[in-house]
Specification:
Layout lengths: L2 H16 L2 H15 L6 H14 L4 H18 L2 H10 L5 H11 L5 H24 L5 H10 L10 H9 L12 H18 L3 H13 L5
Helix pairs in contact: 3-4, 3-6, 3-8, 5-6, 7-8
């Protein structure tokens, strides 16, 4: 496996996407919205936390629809059973587990202050460690997703789309059944290398990779 050649192939694909001015403008606008999230109230941060709980192992569009329906008030006031009903009605998988995770997350309703303080104290990667260990339904990917959506720039979101891209370019030999922390960090190192080569933050790189596989730009 010629890793250097395969890496260059992926870099070329990303650079070609950068030539799409409409796409570039869309991604830039989305990244600006992420960066501005720090100015939003704590209610918006908690709603985003719930969105990322929903987005794990599910379609982002479906999770976004549920977030728009429930919003902060629904996430914090509906019973676990009512949450499950809304999630199921939107044809989302694992409705009972997702409702349980959201109910558990209510103890962190001021996740804005918690996250900002964590980043100040231990950096974005340290904040990810805390979130992945304390938020039920969160692993490394979900914690990275939440932090990216609220302004973090240094974290890779290693989901099935990213892993498929690596497989297609023969940068990994196989897609693991379980994405362990060690394997996640190894994949992140690969994307940090790509980001340096192409002068992109991990947040921006993820947007291009997501578009490469889905044809959409979503949060």
């Amino acid at each position: 496996m010629d890793r250097t050649k395969n890496m260059q192939s992926l870099l070329t694909e990303i650079k070609n996407l950068q030539n799409n001015k409409e796409l570039q403008e869309t991604i830039t606008k989305q990244l600006e919205e992420f960066s501005a999230f720090k100015n939003k109230p704590k209610e918006a941060w908690f709603s985003e936390l719930c969105f990322c709980i929903l987005a794990a192992n599910a379609k982002s569009r479906t999770s976004w629809n549920i977030q728009q329906e429930l919003q902060y008030e629904g996430f914090v006031t509906k019973s676990q059973e009512e949450l499950a009903e809304v999630i199921l009605r939107n044809k989302h998988r694992f409705h009972n587990n997702k409702a349980k995770y959201i109910a558990h997350a209510r103890q962190y309703r001021d996740i804005k202050s918690i996250t900002i303080n964590l980043i100040k104290e231990v950096g974005e990667k340290g904040a990810r460690e805390w979130l992945s260990r304390n938020i039920e339904g969160f692993g490394m990917k979900e914690a990275s997703h939440f932090l990216r959506n609220t302004g973090a720039k240094t974290l890779a979101i290693v989901d099935r789309h990213v892993l498929n891209i690596l497989l297609e370019h023969q940068l990994v030999k196989e897609k693991p059944h379980t994405l362990t922390r060690a394997y996640y960090l190894m994949i992140e190192e690969t994307f940090e290398q790509i980001g340096k080569e192409i002068q992109m933050t991990q947040a921006e790189l993820d947007m291009y990779l997501w578009y490469m596989k889905t044809g959409e730009v979503l949060k």
